[in-house]
Amino acid sequence: MKTYSFIILFLYCICNVSMANEDSMVQSEDSLSNVLAKTTDPAKRIEILQELCALTTNTPATLKWIQQTRLEARKNNSRENEDWALGHLAVYFYNFEMLDSLIYYTSQSDSLSKVMGKHSSYYYGSQALLCQNLLWIGQREKASDTAIRLFKQAKEENSTNGIINLGETLGLINQQIGQDSIAVTYLKESLDMLIETSGKVPYIIRVLNSIIDSELKLKRFDDARKHIEELQAHLDKMKKNIPNSGMSQLYSSNYLLSEAFYINLFVQLGNADEAKKHLLMAQSYENDINDGYVEHFYKLSLAAYYKLTKQYAQALNIINQAMELNDSPETMKLKAEILFDKGDSREAAIQYRDALEQNESQNVETFIRQISELRAIHDTNQLELEVKELRVKELELEAKQQQLKWSIALTSLFLIILILGTFVFIHTRRLNNELKKDKRALLKSEKELRIARDHAEESDRLKSLFLSNMSHEIRTPLNAIVGFAQLLDIETEEGDERKEFTKVIMDNSALLLNLVNDILDISRLESERYRFSFAEENLAECCRAALTSAEHRVKPGVELRFSPESEDFILNTDKLRLQQVLINLVGNATKFTKQGFIELAFTVDKKNDLVRFTVTDTGCGIPADKQDAIFERFEKLNEYVQGTGLGLSICRIIAERFGGDVILDKKYTGGARFIFTHSLNISQEKDI
């Protein structure tokens, strides 16, 4: 979701120009140029140049004035104004997709920051733009690693602008990889700080747009509606103070987007009347669209509305226009749904297939890129190890050569004494023999180490290739089975025996997909190359999120409980991996609990420096003879019931990385109770 107009607007907003009077900004470019030619005072010249930059925003002349501002600042050793110019150059080249120039001026900003001894808001702004540019060209992992590092740096330095810029960037990155819930967390933090500090309306509008986009995908309709109302309120403020036609067009484009958000919201709620009302309001702004994302989202919303109102011809026409802008899997899926509702099941199936293939292709590319990065890290570590080993051998050889030199010196000293000389000669000869023997042993050891290294590299390559092939070859047919099974399920009437068969296919496909994911998870965890990213998290919120993810598995008549010791306790942890353990433990409880309750609770044991989680159920329990075996992989308690698979093994591995463990409480007889412990003292970030 690249929104050039928003970045252009940001450039306009951060221009902190000291104006001689309120009318100076509305002077013509020629007028200001004439004033500049007659001005000799350096500070006044920089002020006029900055006014010219603001006046010519997003035009070719902008670049000339920004570069001239930088030259003037460097000539007068004004580092703050040079920093201002570098930040605006980064924005300019970002807007025009000139990555090489963006990288160059970002590096210049970094060098200037080191000279200044601080990281300014322009430094963090240009770094955030670089991360976003990497995101748009597909380098998600590099963008994410850089943004996370800079975000932590901004927090350590307590840089408000840095936290805002990098928080928004991390929100956009998580949106791109489908982690909208995490994206909303980062974006809301940026929004709160914006409102609390600068209160820049255009920037607030930009962040609100991103938040609403994710909330609609997450189906958080109440939050989305509240934020759309807040967005339109800020747009009304913006309308009252529009300095030029470019800003007026930008206002219209954003207002159209807000109405598109409303259309999308009410379509998802099934309220065609409300959706139509906002559609009519949006139509008056259609000619003012100046942003690819706005146009694409608006057309998606229109197509969804026409689908809801069964105007299939119009829906297909609009969705085809949207696909010309962006043929993403989301767009292709909506077209498939329109075709299916229209009755064209064959074409719908083709669209579903194309969407699945495109999504799988993107996933495979990402996976291969990650494998390549891991391989590069492995090769680097292996090379460092070899260098260290060779250095040790060189030191040993140097030591023995020094010993030989001393022996020769002693021989020369006592050469006049034949007996002593003979003894020295024999001793020296023996040392030479030992050195040769040691050298041969070292050469043999080096050869064996080289062979072992080659074998290890080949094994690692074959394992990586196997995991990549298994992921692709199993997921592709499995996704196809799930997709066509869903189509069969929709077209089959209730009571038809085929509907039960279809449900069996879908359930077992889901189990197989989970098994594939678990195998990949446990393989990567055991390889000890998994990166755990630790951060301060509200423990109660993490637990509730885990319960929400597992509640659909709870059988009717079973109560799902949560008993936290504290609602405000903050734990330094990897949120995603912590929730994975809790979801696995609660999910196991749902399999064997048909009535009663399932309870998740936690207590903080500061004496032993740990947090103790308990997952208690009133299910069938675990037989005494099986209690020591349940953490074995694919262990089955009952031959006629699905076994525990890899879930508990993965939980135990993750718990060990958290400095804790997962055990079964054998004293509890009302069902089953698992105890999971997590250390309170753990480093901020740990590579695993």
Q: Could you tell me the mean pLDDT?
A: 79
Q: In this structure, how is the largest beta sheet organized?
A: 5 strands, mixed
* Broad shape: globular
Strand segment tally? 9
Structural class: alpha+beta
- Which stretches of 5+ consecutive residues score pLDDT under 50? 1-26, 367-380, 684-688
Helix tally equals: 23
Helix content: over 70%
Evaluate the radius of gyration.
33 Å
Protein name: histidine kinase
InterPro entries: HATPase_C_sf, HATPase_dom, His_kinase_dom, HisK_dim/P_dom, HisK_dim/P_sf, Sensor_HK_Regulatory, Sig_transdc_His_kin-like_C, TPR-like_helical_dom_sf
Coiled coil: 378-448
Enzyme class: transferase
Walk me through the structure.
This protein is α+β, with helices and mostly antiparallel strands. Among the domains are: 43-97, no CATH class; 354-523; 531-687, Histidine kinase-like ATPase, C-terminal domain (Heat Shock Protein 90, 2-Layer Sandwich), CATH 3.30.565. The protein is 70% helix and 7% strand. It has helices spanning 4-14, 29-38, 42-55, 60-75, 79-95, 99-116, 121-136, 140-156, 160-176, 180-196, 201-217, 221-239, 245-269, 272-283, 292-308, 312-325, 329-342, 345-413, 418-491, 497-526, 539-550, 575-592, 647-657, and strands at residues 531-533, 535-538, 558-564, 570-573, 596-605, 610-617, 662-664, 672-679, 685-687. The strands form three sheets. It has a five-stranded mixed beta sheet. It has a two-stranded antiparallel sheet with strand order 1-9. The longest helix is centred in the middle third of the chain and has 74 residues, at 418-491. The radius of gyration is 33 Å and the shape is globular. Mean pLDDT is 79; it is low at 1-26, 367-380 and 684-688. The chain crosses the membrane at residues 406-426. Residues 1-20 form the signal peptide. This is histidine kinase.
